[in-house]
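Weekly sync, protein design subgroup
Attendees: M.S., D.O., the rotation student, P.L. (late)

Item 1: inverse folding check
M.S. brought a backbone from last month's batch and wanted to see whether the design step gives back something sensible before we order anything. D.O. pointed out we never logged the input encoding, so this time it goes straight into the notes. Structure tokens as presented (71 positions):
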């Protein structure tokens, strides 16, 4: 699954389409599709991951995706 995650890292525009930065957290923009696969719904807020604040979409790559590839 590492190759799949690396592909997601290489396509940051996909993450930017799914999440929006809003008031110090990330908000899910869309319903269904990839968001649903992750168990997320439109309007859900992501505040932190592994103790790190999620303020920008790139924070997800650094705190979620890169550790998955490394593991």
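Designed sequence read out in the meeting:
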């Amino acid at each position: 699954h590492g190759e799949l995650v690396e592909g997601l890292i290489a396509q940051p525009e996909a993450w930017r389409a799914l999440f929006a930065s809003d008031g110090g957290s990330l908000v899910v923009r869309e319903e269904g599709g990839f968001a649903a696969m992750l168990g997320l719904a439109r309007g859900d807020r992501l505040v932190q991951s592994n103790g790190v604040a999620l303020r920008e979409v790139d924070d997800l790559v650094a705190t979620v995706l890169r550790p998955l590839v490394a593991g």
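Discussion: The longest strand covers residues 19-22. The chain is about 50% helix and 20% strand.
Action: P.L. to compare against the previous round before Friday.
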